Amino acid sequence: MLVRNAVSGCVAVAVASVAMTGLAHADAPTVQAPHTAAAPRVTVTPTMAKQKATVTVKVVGAPKTCRSVWARSDAFVKTAALAKKGNPPVYAGPAGVKANAAPGPHQVVVGGVGCGKWTAKAKLTVLAAPKTVKGKVISKTGVHVRQQPSSSSRITGAYRSGQTIDLICRKVGQPVGGNRTWYQVKTPKGWVTARYVKANGPVPYCK
Hints:
Blueprint: H1 2-27, E1 41-45, E2 48-49, E3 54-60, E4 68-72, E5 80-85, E6 90-96, E7 104-113, E8 120-126, E9 133-137, E10 143-146, E11 155-159, E12 164-167, E13 169-176, E14 179-185, E15 190-193, E16 197-199
Parallel strand pairs: 2-8
Antiparallel strand pairs: 1-3, 3-6, 4-5, 4-7, 5-6, 7-8, 9-12, 9-16, 10-11, 13-14, 14-15
């Protein structure tokens, strides 16, 4: 009889202990992971650009203390000031690529006034300028530069007879004297017919 009472007492203590443990867990505060702010993100659009082109730098997640934000790169003509918009703020602005920027990857660094030591980085790839082939105007009266590879297109300039010019690429256009090839030129920007221009080497097709 004493043994039975002792066992019953032990069971009761065990049940009470489990119940109290459950209450303790139920009453314990939930531990939450500390909030981590999203890392600032910098984008350059387009990521690949030609010399003398304009790209857009955009920053999301800059420190709230920033009074102004800028973007710098050895490929840029000058430091670009980024305008603030929205809440949370997004900073964005245009940046000009140098005419003599070296082809290849360049680092874009973003920082600002009031941002402390904060900086963020992105990459811009400058594309190599297309190689040109020299050509000579063989028409005695020179040749017109057209907006499109067609003799009915608007005239954007002209070259004189015997002048040496840079030919960027070629494409098929309106035939002139049976010749359907036209050369793209840079200055003035436009097209000249191959009927009146002799290339000093093979001119690649325009992409």
